[in-house]
C-alpha cells in the first residue's frame, strides 16, 4: 500500500459516504475532469457529392462525401471539439498492391483536408498514415510473397505523409506499426519545411479483435488476407509497449497513442507514468459498436456509458480520446 494511505481513520469516525452525499460535494472532490477539449472525432469520408452512407456495423456512424464532411467539421467547431481525424473509404478501382493512391496529392484524404481547412481553418486535422485503405491486400504495409515489408512500406508512407502535410494536415498519426517510421517521417517533414506538423504515433497498437467494424467502414475487411500479428502487438504484452513508445519518442513523436482503449487502460497508465508525454487512446470501432448496440437494444443507457467510459480514459492518464461518440459527448458536456 502507498504510504499516503497509511493514516486512514476507521469507521465510524471516518465515513467515506459523507463526501458523496450531495451533488455539490461530489463535484468538489472529483478527481477526474472530462471536457470537450479532450475529444478527437474520427470521421469517414467517401467519394461523391451530397452522399451519406451508414456504416452497418457502427450504428449512428456514416461515411460522408467531402461536402458533407465539411458540414461535419463545422458542427465539430461549433461544439468546441478541437480536432477531426480523417479516414477514407477508397474506391476499389484505386486500390493497388503498391498503394500508390496513398501519395496521390489529389486523393480523397487530401481533398477532404483542403476543403476542411478552407471552411474551418482553426480546427485541427489529424490524418491516419497507413496503407490499408489504399492497399489491394488490405494490409497496413506493402505485401510481397505473403510478407509485409517494413522498409519498403515506410518509403511509401513517407510520400503519403508529405502529400497530407502539403494539403494542410496538422497532425500525422501513423497507425502502421512499421519499425523506424517515426524517424523517417520527422526527417522528411523537416527537409520539406513542415517542421510545424505534429506526429501522434500509434505507438502501442495491438493486434486486436476490436477493429472489424472499422475495416468494414474503410472497405478493407474483405480484402484482408491473413492477420496483422507480424506488425501489430500481441495483446498479452505490456513491457513491449513501453519499448515501442520509447522508440517512437526518441525518433521524434510529439504525442503517443494506445489502441484499442478500454481493454488497454493499464498500458495508458504505464505510458503516462513512465514518459509523461501527451498520451492518447482510441475508443475503437468495436468498443463503440458494442456499447452503441447494447444501448440501441435498451440494455445500456448510451449517454451514461459514453461519458463513463470517456472519464475512465481520463482517469487512466489520457490527455485526449479519439471516439466516434465525440459529438454526442460534446453535446452532453456542454448541455446542448
From TrEMBL:
Protein name as it appears in the record: Delta-aminolevulinic acid dehydratase
EC primary class: lyase
Any one GO biological process: protoporphyrinogen IX biosynthetic process
Superkingdom in the source lineage: Bacteria
Binding site for Mg(2+): 244
Pfam family name, one: ALAD
Biochemical pathway: Porphyrin-containing compound metabolism; protoporphyrin-IX biosynthesis; coproporphyrinogen-III from 5-aminolevulinate: step 1/4
Catalytic center residues: 205 (schiff-base intermediate with substrate), 259 (schiff-base intermediate with substrate)
GO cellular component: cytosol
Record-stated family: Belongs to the ALAD family.
Catalysed reactions, as listed in the record: 2 5-aminolevulinate = porphobilinogen + 2 H2O + H(+)
Species the sequence originates in: Vineibacter terrae
Amino acid at each position: 500500500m502507498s504510504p499516503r494511505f497509511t493514516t486512514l481513520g476507521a469507521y465510524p469516525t471516518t465515513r467515506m459516504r459523507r463526501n458523496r452525499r450531495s451533488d455539490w460535494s461530489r463535484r468538489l472532490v472529483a478527481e477526474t475532469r472530462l471536457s470537450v477539449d479532450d475529444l478527437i472525432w474520427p470521421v469517414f469520408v467517401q467519394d461523391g457529392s451530397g452522399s451519406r452512407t451508414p456504416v452497418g456495423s457502427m450504428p449512428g456512424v456514416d461515411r460522408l462525401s467531402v461536402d458533407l464532411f465539411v458540414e461535419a467539421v463545422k458542427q465539430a467547431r461549433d461544439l468546441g471539439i478541437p480536432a477531426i481525424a480523417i479516414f477514407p473509404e477508397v474506391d476499389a478501382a484505386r486500390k493497388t498492391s503498391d498503394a500508390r493512391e496513398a501519395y496521390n496529392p489529389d486523393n480523397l484524404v487530401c481533398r477532404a483536408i483542403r476543403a476542411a481547412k478552407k471552411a474551418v481553418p482553426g480546427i485541427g486535422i489529424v490524418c491516419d498514415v497507413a496503407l490499408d485503405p489504399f492497399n489491394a491486400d488490405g494490409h497496413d504495409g506493402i505485401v510481397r510473397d505473403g510478407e509485409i515489408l517494413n522498409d519498403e512500406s515506410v518509403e511509401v508512407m513517407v510520400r503519403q505523409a508529405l502529400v497530407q502535410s502539403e494539403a494542410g494536415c496538422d497532425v500525422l498519426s501513423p497507425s502502421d506499426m512499421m519499425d523506424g517510421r517515426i524517424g523517417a517521417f520527422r526527417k522528411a517533414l523537416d527537409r520539406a519545411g513542415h517542421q510545424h506538423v505534429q506526429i501522434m504515433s500509434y505507438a502501442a497498437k495491438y493486434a486486436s479483435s476490436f477493429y472489424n467494424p472499422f475495416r468494414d467502414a474503410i472497405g478493407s475487411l474483405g480484402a484482408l488476407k491473413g492477420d496483422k500479428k507480424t506488425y501489430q502487438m500481441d495483446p498479452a504484452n505490456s513491457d513491449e509497449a513501453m519499448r515501442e513508445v520509447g522508440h517512437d519518442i526518441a525518433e521524434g513523436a510529439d504525442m503517443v497513442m494506445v489502441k484499442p482503449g478500454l481493454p488497454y487502460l493499464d498500458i495508458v497508465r504505464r505510458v503516462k507514468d513512465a514518459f509523461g508525454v501527451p498520451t492518447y487512446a482510441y475508443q475503437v470501432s468495436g468498443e463503440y459498436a458494442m456499447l452503441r448496440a447494447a444501448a440501441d437494444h435498451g440494455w445500456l443507457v448510451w449517454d451514461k456509458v459514453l461519458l463513463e467510459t470517456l472519464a475512465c480514459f481520463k482517469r487512466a492518464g489520457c490527455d485526449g480520446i479519439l471516439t466516434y461518440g465525440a459529438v454526442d459527448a460534446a453535446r452532453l458536456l456542454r448541455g446542448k
